[in-house]
Structure formats: structure tokens, C-alpha cells
Amino acid sequence: MPPPPSLRSARPSERWVVRARQPDGSATDHVGWVVAVDDEAVRLDGSVDPVSGVATASWRVPLADVVVARQAPPARGGPDPARTPAAALEHASAEAWAVDVEPLGDWLLRSASGFTGRANSCLAVGDPGVPLPEAAARVEAYAAAHRIAPLAQVVTGSTEDAALQDLGWGETYVATDVLAMRLADLLGDHGPQPTVRVGEELDPGWRAAFDAYRPNDADPAVVTRLLDGRRPRAFGSVERDGEVVAVGRGHLARGWLGVAALWTHPDQRRQGLATAVMRGLGHWAARRDARWVYLQVDARNEAAHAAYERLGFRLHHRYRYLAPPER
């Protein structure tokens, strides 16, 4: 029996809803990613468990039992990402880029031998559980103990931002914009591209490309811990002539895919490689039930803002770093 017309065009890795007749005469829906379609059945895999990486369910549906089938969006829908509070998104993103972390109430003291501001600052979002002057002193003491500059990352315009400024803390570094959108909107009808490799292991080619575009004098072991830590995360890349020419890192937390370390070799730009890598990571995250995607951009980077806005990203919130007054 040939596949129903709607299933005949189904391709592996597409997400479909297949309604199948049951032995008792009722019908049930299977929502999953197509593994294969032949003349007898369609095989689907359900979502992938983020920890184990194994599909939570698999189905073989005889075509004779299919009542109706339709292609579904590549990722689950969800409310407007703007409805997620900035504090909630900041705590989700904190899991994506960290080495050593120590809680201070809702705040997070972080250190990574000085490599990047995000990994070497206190995420001052929420209630520190102690009076603010004591919390600020704890941030400074932690920084001194770990030989990093004392910094507090705050949501711009938040209560914590104002309270630390009242203590004399002032802005340092350039502010960062957090852009967000629904993952299904980013993926649209773009299926996984075979030229984009997405894996969950940090391989030498990916790491070499990262080091080339972001040279630093940090301890390589610390950088590896930062990139490789805190699963579930994945590494996307495009290779040409034996060389990795585009990379990106994705991290999944609380239904959010965070995209970072997005880079394309200067000789390969304006070909859509960064977007392809981002969407490759998006398909990886969609299989793990991600619903939204965010990235962080220098507030002054007008070109990057324009490029991401064309994809559908919108400003969610802004954060900045505050430093204590000189003693």
C-alpha cells in the first residue's frame, strides 16, 4: 500500500503528527520525528531525553492504520518569549557559561580564571538572602579569593542595579543585549542541513576554530571546562576543505536554547553559514523540547543586531556589569 499523499513527501528528521486507528476503533496521535517511510509503515521517534540523549518513545505505524497525517512545526510552540521575566532567563543562561559557581541566595558567584565577564562575575539577580551591603562585600571577598576583578552582572534598570549603584558601584564594560524568539520561528521550514555538523563532544577541529577567532592567554584547561561543561550542550560547525570555517555552541536549559561562540571565518562570510549553524543547533534543541532561543550581543554592535532582527530576534532585556568604588 503506498503512503497516504501527505506522508509521501515526508523526509527523515521532519516533525509530523500521525493519527492512527487503534484496534478498538479509536484513534491516537503520534507526534515525532520521521525516521523512515516505506510502503508498509512510517517510523517515528519522540523527543530526546536531554540527559541520556535517547528518544523517549518510538513508533512504527502501519500505513493501513493512518487516518490523517500532517507535518508539524519543527519545534514546539509556546508563549511570546517576552513573557519570560528577565530574571528567569538570566538564571537559565547562567547555566550555559560557567566553571566554578557558588550560590549567594538567588545570586551566583562565578569564577573562571578571568576568562570572560559572564563567567567571572556575580549574577546579581534576585534576593541574595542577606542585607545588600553584606552581599556586596561577599562579592568582593569572593573575587579577591579567586584573583578576579569584583563585578556584578545586573539586569539594566532592575532593583539590584539601582541598589548596587546606591552603594557606589558603577558601570564598567559595554552593556549586552539579550535577544530572543520562538525556536519554531527561527527554524521555519528549514530542515537540518547536511553540511552542518552538530555533536555533543568538543572535538579538536571545533576547539581550534574557537581559539583562532578568540585568542586569549587564559589557562586552556579552564577554557575547556567552560566550553565542555554543563550538559546538555552541543557544538555546531561547518567544514570546508578539511578546515572548520564556522562554529557555534548551544546550551539547553528550562526550554531555552542559548547560542554562543558563533563565528564564521572572514573568507567565508556572507554565505549564511552562521545562520545554518544556529539552525543546526536549533534542530538539536527542538528534539529535546526546546521552545525558545536567545543570544547575547554587544549593545553597540549595530550590524549584528540588524542581522539577527532579520531572522526574527527581538530585544528581551539588557544587562551590564557594575564594579565597586575604588577603595
From TrEMBL:
Species of provenance: Microlunatus flavus
Alphabetically ordered keywords of this record: Transferase
PROSITE patterns: GNAT
InterPro entries: Acyl_CoA_acyltransferase (IPR016181), GNAT_dom (IPR000182), Rv0428c-like_C (IPR056935)
CDD domains hit by this protein: NAT_SF
Keyword Ion transport set for record: no
Protein's name according to its UniProt entry: Acetyltransferase (GNAT) family protein
GO MF entries: acyltransferase activity, transferring groups other than amino-acyl groups
Gene3D superfamilies: 3.40.630.30
Key word Transferase present: yes
Domain N-acetyltransferase: 194-327
